[in-house]
Each structure stands twice: as C-alpha cells, then as structure tokens.
Write a structure and sequence with these properties.
CATH class of the largest domain: Alpha Beta
Number of strands: 26
Bound molecules: iron/sulfur cluster
Strand order of the largest sheet: 4-3-5-2-11-10-12
CATH topology of the largest domain: Glutamine Phosphoribosylpyrophosphate, subunit 1, domain 1
CATH superfamily of the largest domain: Aminohydrolase, N-terminal nucleophile (Ntn) domain
CATH architecture of the largest domain: 4-Layer Sandwich
Helix content: 25-40%
Distance between the termini: 21 Å
Structural class: alpha+beta
Strand content: 25-35%
C-alpha cells in the first residue's frame, strides 16, 4: 500500500449528495445553457459530468447526437476549446453531474446514457435510486439484455427499448410504471424532451422557460438555481407521479403536455434531507424556497434548545459553512429573543477543496479538517460560542472540527444540530455510511455524544419540529427514513449487491 497520499472522499460529516439532471429544448446554444446549469448544480455531484446534444446533419435530413463525458468538475470536463460550440451542436441538450450512489465510478457509468434504438435517438439522465433493480436486471438479462454499465439507471434504457408501445412517450411511461424507487428523469429524443418524477416524487425536478424569437425555450433541472444562471424563468416544479412532454408544439404554444405515470397518485414523499442539507439555499425545490425552510429549521431549533448566557456575556452563534449558514441565521434570530445573540463568521471554509481531494503526506483527520476550515480567532476567543451544523452523519470530522474551534479558545462551546439524529441509510439516491458507522447509533444520549465530540452541550432538532418546519402542501408528506427508518417505498434488500463491479 502506498502511504504517500490519501484519497479522501467527502470526508466531512455529511451524507454524499446524489446527482443533478438538466435538459434544454429549443435553444441554439443548448449545450452552453446545459453547461452553466450543470455548473450551478455542481454541489449535487462532483465526480463526473456529461452533456449530450441532438442536432441535424449537414443535409438537414437526419438527426444525430454528440456527447462529451468525463471525470471531474463541470468546468474541467468541458474545458477544451470548441467542446461546447463545435462538438456539442444542436438546439437540444441533456446534462448530468454524477456522484455514484450505485455502480462504481468509471467512465461507462457517466451519464447521460445514449442509445439509438428502433424508434431513433434517446438520451437519458437520472437522479435517484431504483429499489427493484435486481428483479428488473434479472428479467432483462433473461430476455437477452447486455448491460454496459453497473448503474441502476441503465435499466430504464432496456425497459424503453423492449417496449411494444407505439410512441416514445408511451414506451417511456411503460418503463416508468415497471421501475420502482426514486427517479427524477430527463430524456431527450429526436422528437422532444420528456421529464418525470417518480410516483412518490422523492427527488426534485423543476421546469423553467425563456422567450425566444421562435417561441419558448424550455429547461428542466434538479434545482431552480440552474435557471437563474442562464436567465430562464421558473415555471413550476414537476408534480410527483407526473411525466411531461415538451416538443415543437410546446415551443409555439407554451403549453406543457402533462401525463400521470401510475393511474393512482400516492401521497408524495419528498426527501426531507433536500431541505436540511443537499439543495442550495438559493434554489426552489418541490415548489418552495430552500432558504425559507432552512431558516425555519434554525428558528425551531432555537425555540427547542436555546442557549443561555454565562454572566452577562452575549451569545455568539457561528455556522459550519456553507450548508448550515441559513439555519444559523434563523437560530441566532430566535435566540436573540431569549438573550442577546450575535451571528458571526467564526469558521472560514476553503472553496478550493472539492469533495474528493488528496491530502499528501498522511492520513491525518486534523490536517484534513484544517484543509477545509480555519477559525477566526477574534470571533471565538473568550466568547460564549454556539456552533450550528445542519446534520451529523459519521461524526468523525465533527470531533476534529470542535478541536479546531477550541484551539481559538472559546469561553464555552456548545453545539446545536438543525435536524434529528441520522440513524438509517438512504436507499433513494443518497450515499450514507452503514448503520454501524452512523454516530447516532453509537451513543445513547446527547450528553454522551457531546462528551465524545468535546462540546459543553449538544442538542438535535426533534423530529416533530423538523416536520413542523416543512412546507405544507395538499397530497404531500416527506420521506424521513434516514431519521426514522420508515421507508416509504419498499426496498429490495440485496438491490445494491449485484451492482458492484
Ligand atoms: Fe431523503 Fe433520508 Fe429519505 Fe433518503 S432516506 S430520501 S436522504 S429523507
């Protein structure tokens, strides 16, 4: 074994985000739109990126596709001169940022997945995890299918290609009715763009549009922040159990064609962790502003677990940047009603450290934390500090982070977490460690965990107050399985084993 360098994958106390999908229809700069949109969604997947475009050949009588895929960040994958303008031609594009939740990290697994089948060109990008992959793979392999990748997403292509339905729309719908689990999908073909959210709508997907000379250009994206960067206006979130078709009629009329996937629409089960941590605070997901929800989480946390002063010292609240910033603002505001409280920037995060980085020399957790964060001594020294984090998953880095903050000599150091203890893994598209590795399963009480991490007190937000912080929409509830173990969609127990290389 080579000990000279240690590759550290997302070595903070977070679950690893899933993926981003983007689709663009009717824009002569479709690939450039997709590129910027993917860049805005980089936080949802930093291992690999890909864009496929569809264009007419020079005689204008046949449609073709072009694609570029690669490992790394969006800015690196498409950095070559002419990649976007000369290779990725066409007014239709689809893009994907990958963080592998199933299937190993290898080039073949980078989406979008492209195919030419009996009905023409089809390219697909998927966010989520299927929960009946094993059954479907076996069925398809028994029928002669040969899988090119180790992902669950490829199952969709085989289900679509074998469908006897006449239209692409019906073929896709049939495939979606067979697949179970979490999927927010974008599919582009030589006839239009199809987007869908699974019947429970676990993962987000939104629609944006922009006025063009010939009508409207449409974009679908995992989060609305993708629309902002390219000046598309937010139209709405796809509904759960909804499949939409955007084609040349939609471009002219502005009317999106909408269909149900399953005949009966179940209660939605939006992923609550998207609000807690995954999505950007400047995004709208599931039709709501993430910022607002995250602020409410912080406010509720302060109502449940305020911090009181020592003598007359005011409270200084600091966040673990960046994902905890908004909840921290909410916390500070409500705690200020109880006792004088200020929000300060006590930790500075390096933005040059990605989720996968190499720390040369040694496998030293303290050094790794210092690669990411540093303290602002003047903010922390001799102050009554409360540090807010949005979640604790593995807990190992929290300990090193607390040691770092203590190095700046706070008078007292307490910790508040704007979600309940994470005790169960996710099977719907987030990468969590095993149950044994989750810190909340190693300690019986908050006091024991506080002792281990090294803070004077530690309090989580209760499940009840987390749910209270969520938007209330008719027919919508939330998946909270990583906190409660109540999985809303049945899991095929060995689903993930067969997907390993
Ligand atoms: Fe989201 Fe947790 Fe449910 Fe997974 S288990 S979908 S992370 S709430």
């Amino acid at each position: 074994m080579n000990n000279c360098s240690h590759i550290c994958k997302d070595d903070n106390d977070k679950a690893r985000p899933n993926c981003a999908v983007v689709g663009v229809y009717n824009n002569p700069e479709a690939s450039i739109m997709a590129y910027y949109a993917l860049h805005a969604l980089q936080h949802r997947g930093q291992e690999a990126s890909g864009i496929t475009t569809i264009y007419f050949d020079e005689e204008k009588n046949k449609k073709k596709y072009a694609y570029i895929k690669g490992e790394g960040l969006v800015l690196d994958v498409f950095s070559e001169n002419g990649a976007l303008t000369e290779v990725l031609k066409g007014d239709v594009a689809i893009g994907h940022n990958r963080y592998s939740t199933t299937g190993a990290s290898k080039i073949a697994n980078i989406q979008p997945f492209n195919m030419i089948y009996k009905n023409g060109i089809l390219s697909l990008a998927h966010n989520g995890n299927l929960t009946n992959t094993k059954t479907l793979k076996k069925m398809l392999q028994d029928e002669g299918a040969i899988f090119q990748t180790t992902t669950d997403s490829e199952v969709f292509l085989h289900l679509i290609a074998r469908s006897k339905k006449e239209t692409k729309l019906e073929q896709v719908r049939e495939a979606l009715q067979i697949a179970r689990g979490a999927y927010s999908l974008c599919i582009v073909t030589d006839e239009g763009m199809i987007a869908a959210r699974d019947p429970h709508g676990v993962r987000p997907l939104s629609i944006g549009r922009k006025k063009m000379e010939n009508g409207y250009s449409y974009m679908v994206a995992s989060e609305s922040t993708a629309f902002d960067i390219v000046n598309y206006e937010y139209v709405r979130s796809l509904k759960h159990n909804e499949m939409i078709l955007i084609d040349d009629d939609t471009v002219k009329t502005g009317k999106i064609k909408s269909f149900k996937i399953d005949e009966v629409t179940p209660i939605a089960k939006h992923c609550i962790f998207e609000y807690v941590y995954f999505s950007r605070p400047d995004s709208k997901i599931f039709g709501h502003n993430v910022d607002k929800v995250r602020r409410k989480l912080g406010k509720n946390l302060a109502e449940e677990s305020p911090v009181m002063p020592i003598k007359d010292e005011k409270i200084t609240v600091i966040s673990v940047p960046d994902s905890s910033n908004t909840a921290t603002l909410g916390y500070a505001r409500i705690n200020d009603n109880v006792t004088p409280t200020v929000f300060e920037i006590g930790l500075i995060r390096s933005h040059y450290v990605g989720r996968t980085f190499i720390s040369p020399g040694q496998n030293n957790r303290e050094l790794k934390v210092k690669t990411k964060f540093n303290t602002v001594q003047g903010v922390i020294e001799n102050r009554n500090i409360v540090v807010i984090d949005d979640s604790i998953v593995r807990g190992t880095t929290s300990k090193a982070l607390i040691k770092l903050i203590k190095g700046a000599k706070p008078m007292k150091l307490q910790m508040r977490v704007s979600s309940p203890p994470v005790k169960y893994p996710c099977y719907y598209g987030m990468d969590f460690p095993s149950r044994e590795e989750l810190i909340a399963n190693k300690f019986d009480t908050e006091e024991e965990l506080a002792d281990y991490i090294g803070v004077d007190s530690l309090k989580y937000l209760s499940l009840e107050k987390m749910l209270d912080s969520m938007p209330k929409d008719e027919g919508v509830s939330y998946c909270d399985a990583c906190f409660t173990g109540n999985y809303p969609i049945p899991i095929e127990k060995v689903n993930f084993e067969i997907l390993e290389d």
